[in-house]
Amino acid sequence: MSSQAGFSLLEMLVSTTILLIVFAMVGTAFLHSRKISLCRRLEVDTLQNARIAIDEMTRTFRAIGFHRDKKNGQVALIEAAPFQIIFNADLSDSYDVLPPAIPLTFLYDAGSYVTPLQHYTSGAEMYRWTLDTNEDGLVDRHDVKDNAEERLTPNPDDMVLNRECYGVSDTGMALGVDEQIVTGLLGPYDAEDQRSYVTPMFQYWLRDHTLGLHLLGDGDGNGKLEGDELYFDSITGLSVLKTVERIDITVTAAAPRKDPFDHLDYYRVSLTSSVFLRNMR
């Protein structure tokens, strides 16, 4: 008897099916690996943004009040708000103090400008850290997606952290220097003007003879801000500001793209640092 070499139709179908299953498994594993890689990259980038913000603010906040003109009454802290802080410090050799009566920058939620009361002589500049990127004195939905950096990402709630410095240059010209430190941060409101209830970027611990060390805005005295307490009013009164002993800095950053697995949420991370103020007196 003679035998015929080759595959039958059934054998060919079985072989093809097995190959398709193998290719599907390899393709699925490859796509899953790509998603994992994208997740890790988003996590690293988000963490890096938060770390840059925390490091920069921690470094400069340690100098709040440094080399200010105490003799003529130049204060260390000018305003303490949840997502904005204004203070005097001598951090740059390139700028001197501003002359009096020059309007500088908006107070938080107040719609009014900060203006020097007199000409101070120490050389301490005025600094403003804020999420108020449209310069209206408010941190709200109008500061979301209002500049090019925020519009580059698909995340609708991205905000930019700004550092502003006000002083007089070596040529005698009054200047305001606006630096965008990092993008991808979350603020008190989202793009739909809904409260986000993220932890305030700045929390202030005050010390007085009656309450001891206590947290600004902590109505129930449990040592943390919750619910509506997260939206505490800013303070500008010198009698209160001079009692600030510690500032807790919390940065909440979000990924620019949604999670590649569920396509619903944006990965977010929060970092916290505490700074004890050494130049308040």
From TrEMBL:
InterPro entries: EF_Hand_1_Ca_BS, N_methyl_site. Signal peptide: none annotated. This is Prepilin-type N-terminal cleavage/methylation domain-containing protein. Keywords: Membrane, Transmembrane, Transmembrane helix. It comes from the Bacteria. The chain crosses the membrane at residues 12-31. NCBIfam families: IV_pilin_GFxxxE (TIGR02532).
